[in-house]
Amino acid sequence: MLTDLLHIEHLKTAFKTDGGEVVSVDDVGFRLKTGETIGIVGESGCGKSVTSLSVMRLLGKSGYVKEGEIWFNGQDLTKFTEDEYRRIRGNEISMIFQEPMTSLNPVFTIGYQMQEGITLHLGLKGKKARDYAVEMLKKVGIPRAESIMNEYPHALSGGMRQRVMIAMALSCKPKLLIADEPTTALDVTIQAQILELMKSLRDESGTAIMLITHDLGVIAEMADKVIVMYAGQVVEEADVFTLFDNPRHPYTQGLMKSIPHVDSDPDERLTSIQGTVPSLLAMPKGCRFNNRCQYAEERCRQEQPLLVTVGEGHSVRCWLAE
Amino acid sequence: MFVYIVRRILISIPVLLGITIVNFLIINMAPGSPVDMMVDPNISAEQLELRKEQLGLNDPLWMQYLTWMGNLLQGNLGYSLSSFEPVSTLIGERIGPTVALMGASIVVGVLIAVPFGIISATRQYSKWDYLMTTGSFLGISIPNFFLGLGLIYIFALKNPWLPSGGMTTLGTEGGIVDTLYHMVLPVFVLAIGIAGKKIRYVRASMLEILGQDYLRTARAKGLREFVVTNRHALRNALIPIITVVGMEIPLLLGGAVITEQIFQWPGIGQLTMQSIMSRDYPTMMALNLLAAVMVLFSNLVMDILYSVADPRIKYN
């Protein structure tokens, strides 16, 4: 049996603001095995990105992990010092971001930016580092890899830059790759290519992937299991087939209904979930989804539901699911 | 790039021509004449008039200008109306001290401003930030003459640690060490002023960069915060910094009029002051021309440096 590569338990991440402390991720937990892909879905502002940045401890000056444990490869990362963390970042855990256009430093060549991490973590220098970087660029399907090394990011298209980001992220053979909306900013055809690339690299290297997206299509394509987040909490967790076949949480059901299907009637209106995610400063009492939920009852407005198991690897945070 | 530079130099010729015309008009429109400054009660009005005639000061302005320009094109800057030495000799004698003084001040000022500005930006709203911004505010606000006089009072008059002015100790041969010793106070005064202004710019331009996505990428690679700030961020913040540092380059030859006067520094600034006081038109014109050339030259240097600092900027 495979042991868990990443095991997050009761993660609570907060930010210091002028208006006091704001908890943006509350009691999030999941397990991820080597080679597995977990998808994290939800609307903007649900805490998906903050969860991933918590794992990387890249929350900026005001953010911090308040409670919970992040077990990675048998070690609790929340106990790590900054120095220890730096040895893991870009090495055992690496990350690619949503905005390929702004994620590369405009004043350094692709080669320089590639070699930086390679030199730092793999100890390769000079020509060896360069050759390795070229090899990585070729692996992610970049034509003219040799000459691209001397180019600056502005000379590359968005898709190419995201390939460079992926090459950079995978160059130290990470055990875990965190992809924060890796295809959101790209054209649809490029999206498909990038997803295809990530899949093949995953199958080749056995890297586990934490995939953050609001696109259920991407989830269906890539993920083994899914967690659905709403207002900083996990509201449903299931393997990908169960989730699509039998979504139990009204929010997940709402998300499913809001995407068009190939076989749906072209004249049919897509349903949308009314309202927006509540502000972190003004969370509703009871279930956090109650003000947008069409099934909400009195109990939902009073008591907060817990995440309960409803099936094999399937848990839901809803009073009605019981 | 070469074509670009040549083109820029060609464009600067009409600009310089315009500057000299405007300068010439303004200088000549000012009341008084060089001859008035030579006034000795024993000289009769006829003799003064004769002198004016000899110096060509009674010619129409356009003719005076063309004479001056004609001489300039032959490489002749004219003669000083107060010391009667060639203007080029006067400037030549003073350019060395000024370059030394201003060069040292700009370097010291920038060396203070860049690290302080970075500290201020990376620790925004901390007590370090407040310390730096307050210090920069003081540096900008205190006039050079006031700070200069204050320092002379403390370090030269009350405690005879440093010389109060000049470039060499009187009655000695001087030498590099002696000159450096004389430079301490004026360089300090000028550097404080320069650093005060630059800290603000460095801070502002670093703050703009510090929130960029690519710094998160750099951190995600596992780079040290020191490398992230001083390599990835600073390199991007350089463009505005180059601009404001470049604006100081004309001072390298133009000197600091007031500070040089206070410290009796035998530089261009002092010469400027003297030539104005004695209505020494040819010297004033030459100094103005020198300043104009330096401004245009430093603009060109800055534009070239931009393309070095930022690969997205290309000139054709």
From TrEMBL, chain A:
Family affiliation: Belongs to the ABC transporter superfamily.
GO function terms (MF aspect): ATP binding; ATP hydrolysis activity
Organism of provenance: Brevibacillus panacihumi W25
A Pfam family it matches: ABC_tran
Location relative to the cell: Cell membrane
Protein's recorded name: Peptide ABC transporter ATP-binding protein
Membrane topology recorded in Swiss-Prot or TrEMBL: Peripheral membrane protein
Cited Gene3D superfamilies: P-loop containing nucleotide triphosphate hydrolases (3.40.50.300)
InterPro entries: AAA+_ATPase (IPR003593), ABC_Ni/Peptide_Import (IPR050388), ABC_transporter-like_ATP-bd (IPR003439), ABC_transporter-like_CS (IPR017871), Oligopep_ABC_C (IPR013563), P-loop_NTPase (IPR027417)
GO cellular component terms given for this protein: plasma membrane
Record PANTHER family: DIPEPTIDE TRANSPORT ATP-BINDING PROTEIN DPPD, OLIGOPEPTIDE TRANSPORT ATP-BINDING PROTEIN APPD
Record-linked PROSITE patterns: ABC_TRANSPORTER_1, ABC_TRANSPORTER_2
Keywords, sorted A to Z: ATP-binding, Cell membrane, Membrane, Nucleotide-binding, Transport
Ranges of residues in domain ABC transporter: 6-256
Biological process, per Gene Ontology: peptide transport
Automatic annotation (TrEMBL), chain B:
Xref: InterPro entries: BPD_transp_1_N (IPR045621), MetI-like (IPR000515), MetI-like_sf (IPR035906)
Location(s) in or outside the cell: Cell membrane
Boundaries of every ABC transmembrane type-1 domain copy: 95-302
Gene Ontology process terms (BP): transmembrane transport
Single GO cellular component term: plasma membrane
Superkingdom in the source lineage: Bacteria
Transmembrane segments annotated in the record for this chain: 9-30, 95-118, 130-156, 176-196, 238-263, 283-306
Keywords noted in UniProt: Cell membrane, Membrane, Transmembrane, Transmembrane helix, Transport
Membrane topology: Multi-pass membrane protein
Family to which the UniProt record says this protein belongs: Belongs to the binding-protein-dependent transport system permease family.
Name of the protein in its database record: Peptide ABC transporter permease
Protein species of origin: Brevibacillus panacihumi W25
